[in-house]
Amino acid sequence: GPRAGRCRSGSAALHARAIPAAQELVDRLLTLADEDAEAYAGYGSALKLPRDTEQEKAARAAAIRAAALAATLSPLRTVEASLEVVDLAEQLAGRSNKNASSDLEVAALLSVAACRSAAANVYINLPSLGDEEQARDLFRRTEGIADAVERLASRTRELVRAGKEREPLPAEPA
User: pTM here?
Assistant: First the structure.
């Protein structure tokens, strides 16, 4: 099409894959925002359950733990999606229209902000899980992904600012 001439040579396959991948990520992140709001509301509802009898206290505690897990896993999925966004930006840096390269740096920066914001929501819920080992595992997993997001964002920024063309990615097997 008319835009093909503006693509870096050899990167047409990357661009053809990146456009639908980016749209899928936009759609998923919007859905995740709604899921996170629902999970937070569920946690708030669990906190309001009655606790007059031992049975009510036990039911409330179980509901809080279940709601805390939902309120932890939802932002964790946002952390994971943030990694996909910044990975795509890094792949495109130096392989796309130089005039739009600042958009890739902005995408990388916003990925870090989204990731760290979602990670904060993961961390605040961990004590309410009632399972220290699970909390430790989720903390490590979240922190590992967040570190990867920051590394890729930094690399994307470096590539954009260097302004150099990169080799196309190896062709994917058919």
Answer: 0.88
Write down the residue that tokens 């302004």 correspond to. 163
Nearest to 142 by CA among 87, 78, 89, 86: 78
Q: Which tokens go with 36?
A: 């996170």
Answer yes or no: are the C-beta atoms of 152 and 87 closer than 8 Å. Answer: yes
3-state secondary structure of 2: coil
- Integer-rounded Cα radius of gyration of the chain: 21
Task: List the end-to-end C-alpha distance of the chain, in Å, as a whole number.
Answer: 23
Residue with tokens 């964790």: 76
DSSP conformation class of 33: H
Amino acid at 80: E
15-71 pLDDT per residue, tens: 889 999 999 999 999 999 999 999 999 999 999 999 999 999 999 999 999 999 999
- Token duo for residue 135: 């909390």
Is there a contact between 78 and 118 (Cβ–Cβ < 8 Å)? Answer: yes
Please list, residue by residue across 57-90, b when 16 or more beta carbons sit within 10 angstroms of its beta carbon and e when fewer do: eeebeebbeebbbbbbebbbbbbbbbbbbbbbbb
> Would you state the structure tokens that stand for residue 164, as one six-digit string?
């150099």
